[in-house]
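So, read this over?
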Amino acid sequence: MANNKLSQLEQAVGADPHNAELRHLLAAEYAEAGRYDSAKAEFLHAIALDPGAHVARFQLGLLLLTLGDPAGASRIWQPLEALGEEAPLWHFKHGLEALIRGELPTCRRELGEGIARNAANSPLNNDMRLILTRIAGETASVRTDFSLYGGSDTRH
């Protein structure tokens, strides 16, 4: 089924290569399939086509962080700073950057605040909760399902 979805998205992107939302969805599916280089490339295409594709930008940073590139994640997330403290992604960015620095209380506070402000993307909240569980020392596995974040509104 996943291969069918990938094929459909690849065809859709081929037919409409300037559609940032389709590229975002394809990137998420590539990430889920473990095709990380393809995922990174598609996330970058989505962001280049629509610099306001904030969820795509956040997901790319999360992917980079997951792949062991915290500096790359921070660079990708930098434009999220302009969203301001009202935006859940701003708090998620700050929380994960605190995690990178080993500042666990700040990480917990920022991720919690982001979750509280994020009514639009429950799969993203679930992933942030998994990170909180993991840093609390519980035995949860942090697995991000990028395809669940959706792409109908990438500006959250």
